[in-house]
Inverse folding.
């Protein structure tokens, strides 16, 4: 272990592989020094773990109804977070819901920023009419209220998780495109881009290898900040009956189903709300830490 | 036959609807193995000529030939393997998020050349940088070291022609001399042809066989090194430039 650590921390790596792994190691050390980022990582890690282990750690089946035990308050033996209006165990539903939340969040996080980066960097790099066309398309998507556009898409494509994800991704990319384009405009006339162009590099290589790395940190920050919004939009779609369908244990759906009992049986909405809050917080903290790690300038000399 | 031939080159930028004529009908030719200087005050269009040769500035008239062939637009890979440029500001010309290793191996990857591991090692030692700099980032290097990396990058494809855009003006005096001597050594070793821009006649005197004095985007006068040393300039502008840096040139001689 000590030898591996010394090999990773070697300031004069002998090979590219060692240098790359050393960079990862340095990044991890930098992340570890940041207590807030570590708590974010802990929360996201816990979410992953819960999603993977849900069937084994959940005390009840998340969809089995027991009308004799409906709306029990938190602290009831056997139902530690209480039960909802069909007598389903809220803790079990939250644990299973982690899977759906993670699924939606990761699909959106993989698609929307990639699309946004592509549009933004291409528009910024080429400028001229390409820029005008791509950015006007972006403007059109931005001009629509996000939820309404997602609603329209789901209404056309039909309800379901995949369509909800698609609708969210299609409405989430324009801000990333804007951010990426702004960053691209600041770097496209720089000498290092001129230098690589002078080496005969193609456009795809310049954009992917030289422009995108400059845009990534700000886009990653936006992605992590948007994660809370994504969870809430998915919840909103579920609430309107256009996203995840009952009786699936989706957190947003759970909040909306507790709306009727908000004043007397507050826990029905509050527990999944707390889950969303904690996970959103985790993503935000992790995102802040990642920004520091991704910027080599913040590295110790 | 000259290696670089520029005939009646004009470069016109359009800025806010107005045409700015940065270079007007400048001609020059540089023989194989020669070192040719462009000198003038800022805004005289000397750097623009280099950028026009590289396809980074809009050519509005005239022609540019490398080895007797008209340069293609866009310049392409063949041009890249024959002409490379060292930029003025070493703080802006290296990608801040790439290691020295990836900066130097990028041209090899673009041109599909193998064995980049050994070539990068050799490139570093050729410009006098220690091998352990290889996996560092540009911000961990000093200005002089960065400029050495930029020179190494320009030489990765082994081009016969190097365009130097004030390669030392961003460096302090002692580092300046080191980098100039490095360039002279590389030119001698590899039989390179230099086209070098500077606002400093002392630097040009140290580096170049011939020099073209420019003012307001036009060529004023061409001088050989001997004519420069004997102060045999015919135009008043060239003389005023000479007078401004004569004492340092005599110091260098």
């Amino acid at each position: 272990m000590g030898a591996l650590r010394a090999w990773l921390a070697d300031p004069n790596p002998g090979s590219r592989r060692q240098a790359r792994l050393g960079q990862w190691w340095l990044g991890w050390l930098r992340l570890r020094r940041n207590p807030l980022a570590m708590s974010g990582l802990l929360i996201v890690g816990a979410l992953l773990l819960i999603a993977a282990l849900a069937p084994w750690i959940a005390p009840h089946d998340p969809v089995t109804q027991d009308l004799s035990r409906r709306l029990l308050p938190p602290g009831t033996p056997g139902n530690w977070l209480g039960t909802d209006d069909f007598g389903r165990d809220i803790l079990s539903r939250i644990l299973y819901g982690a899977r759906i939340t993670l699924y939606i969040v990761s699909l959106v996080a993989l698609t929307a920023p990639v699309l946004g980066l592509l549009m933004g960097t291409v528009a910024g790099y080429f400028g001229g009419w390409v820029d005008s066309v791509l950015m006007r398309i972006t403007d059109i998507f931005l001009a629509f209220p996000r939820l309404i556009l997602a609603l329209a898409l789901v209404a056309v494509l039909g309800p379901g998780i995949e369509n909800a994800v698609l609708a969210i991704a299609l409405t989430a990319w324009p801000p990333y495109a804007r951010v990426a384009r702004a960053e691209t405009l600041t770097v496209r006339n720089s000498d290092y881009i001129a230098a690589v162009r002078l080496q005969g590099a193609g456009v795809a290589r310049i954009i992917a290898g030289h422009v995108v790395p400059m845009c990534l940190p700000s886009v990653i920050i936006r992605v992590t900040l948007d994660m809370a919004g994504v969870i809430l939009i998915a919840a909103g779609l579920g609430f309107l009956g256009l996203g995840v369908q009952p009786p699936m244990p989706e957190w947003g759906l759970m909040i909306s189903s507790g709306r009727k009992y908000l004043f007397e049986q507050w826990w029905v909405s509050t527990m999944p709300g707390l889950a969303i809050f904690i996970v959103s917080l985790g993503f935000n903290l992790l995102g802040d830490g990642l920004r520091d790690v991704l910027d080599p300038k913040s590295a110790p000399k | 036959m000259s290696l670089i031939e520029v005939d009646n080159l004009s470069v016109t930028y359009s800025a806010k609807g107005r045409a700015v004529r940065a270079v007007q009908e400048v001609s020059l030719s540089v023989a194989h193995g020669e070192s040719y200087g462009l000198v003038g005050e800022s805004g005289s269009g000397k750097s623009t000529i280099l950028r026009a040769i590289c396809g980074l500035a809009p050519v509005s008239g005239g022609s540019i030939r490398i080895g007797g062939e008209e340069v293609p637009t866009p310049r392409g890979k063949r041009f890249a393997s024959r002409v490379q440029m060292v930029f003025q500001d070493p703080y802006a010309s290296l990608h801040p998020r790439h290691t020295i290793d990836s900066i130097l191996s990028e041209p090899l990857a673009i041109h599909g050349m193998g064995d980049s591991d050994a070539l990068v090692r050799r490139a570093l030692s050729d410009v006098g940088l220690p091998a352990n700099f290889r996996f560092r980032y540009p911000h961990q290097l000093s200005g002089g070291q960065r400029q050495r990396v930029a020179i190494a990058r320009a030489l990765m494809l082994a081009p016969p022609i190097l365009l130097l855009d004030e390669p030392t003006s961003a460096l302090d005096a002692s580092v300046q001399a080191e980098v100039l001597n490095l360039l002279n050594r590389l030119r001698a070793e590899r039989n390179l042809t230099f086209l070098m821009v500077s606002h400093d006649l002392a630097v040009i005197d140290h580096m170049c066989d011939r020099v073209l004095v420019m003012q307001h985007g036009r060529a004023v006068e061409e001088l050989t090194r001997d004519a420069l040393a004997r102060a045999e300039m015919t135009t008043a502008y060239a003389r005023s430039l000479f007078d401004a840096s004569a004492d340092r040139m005599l110091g260098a001689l």
